[in-house]
Write a structure and sequence with these properties.
alpha+beta; elongated
Length: about 325
């Protein structure tokens, strides 16, 4: 099944140039970034498609010199010029790691499409990736098709978060929070959401390096609280109440008496029509902060009036059905 036009670019990796690129071969050094689209096929007679990065609406970015899990990808891209399309036929041993990479990319893009998406296991057993087609790739020879869009050298692009030092990440969190606050004041909720989400993700990366419940880990977890509160307020403004509740649950698990957390979760529960949960949070708020009792009383009255109105509307709809 190997095309006779193909030549080796490494042991067990054979290259077939579909379209030649332009210019000189780039210098692939530490922190060189290659940006490309890819398709992955099973190397069988049907050439079964496994993944296509174009279906995710954005290309893949590979940063050299950071122990990427697929040697075949690094070796393949290193042989390419910008604008080139090539096929790389790989023996099974050179495909190890692709299943894990594909699962990570699929899960990431599933969450991008739906912030509340739950990544579940498939029916293929306890060791399942959650995708039956990936579970069946073990021992398969794969074909990788790469379209190299561009190559950027160190200093020509902004650093990716995972390559930053801890101090750089902390400074980035402060910057992102300020940008999120500015966007929120301007009622640009989509931009505010992006900045807050990136700040939260950066802190989560910082936390991965620390021992759970250590002093440094607790500092990082505490830093996440105001960001989660801000993010949840954006979700409430966008009427994405279920997402707000999910993040506020995290806040209140860490700080059960957080006044802003209780206020916003009560509001979000009301938006979801989780009436009992909303009542509980309003009453808890009055208990935690007695100065809020007057406000809580008004909110509970508003909640009851909303429930009565909704019930009346539903009764009216039922009448119209008969």
């Amino acid at each position: 099944m190997i095309d006779p036009r193909i030549h080796n670019v490494g042991k067990g990796i054979h290259k077939d140039i579909q379209y030649p690129g332009k210019g000189e071969l780039p210098k692939y050094q530490k922190d060189t970034k290659a940006i490309f689209h890819f398709r992955t096929y099973i190397n069988n007679d049907e050439r079964t498609l496994v993944d296509d990065s174009r279906s995710w609406d954005e290309p893949f970015e590979l940063l050299f010199g950071h122990s990427f899990q697929l040697e075949s990808w690094e070796n393949g891209i290193k042989s390419m010029r910008p604008g080139e399309r090539s096929m790389f036929y790989c023996i099974p041993e050179k495909c190890l790691g692709y299943t894990k990479l594909s699962k990570t990319l699929r899960d990431m893009h599933k969450r991008k499409k739906n912030k509340d998406a739950v990544i579940t296991k498939s029916c293929c057993g306890n060791q399942s990736t959650g995708y039956c087609d990936l579970d069946k790739l073990t021992g398969q020879s794969l074909v990788f098709e790469f379209d190299l869009l561009s190559v950027e050298q160190p200093g020509e692009y902004s650093k990716q978060i995972w390559t930053m030092t801890s101090d750089e990440k902390r400074l980035l969190v402060v910057e992102l929070k300020e940008k999120g606050n500015t966007a929120f004041k301007e009622k640009d909720y989509d931009t505010a959401e992006q900045h807050y989400a990136k700040a939260i993700g950066t802190l989560e990366q910082l936390g991965l390096k620390e021992q759970p419940n250590s002093d440094e880990w607790n500092i990082i977890e505490n830093m996440k609280v105001p960001l989660l509160l801000n993010y949840s307020q954006v979700m409430i403004c966008k009427k994405e109440y279920a997402t707000a509740v999910t993040h506020l649950n995290t806040v209140l698990k860490r700080d059960p008496g957080n006044v802003k957390g209780l206020y916003r979760r009560a509001t979000a529960h009301g938006g979801c029509w989780s009436v009992e949960e909303a009542r509980e949070d309003w009453n808890k708020l009055a208990e935690v902060d007695p100065s809020q009792k007057s406000l809580v009383s008004r909110r509970l009255i508003e909640l009851e009036n909303s429930v009565k109105q909704k019930e009346a509307e539903e009764r009216q709809k039922l009448k119209g059905m008969f």
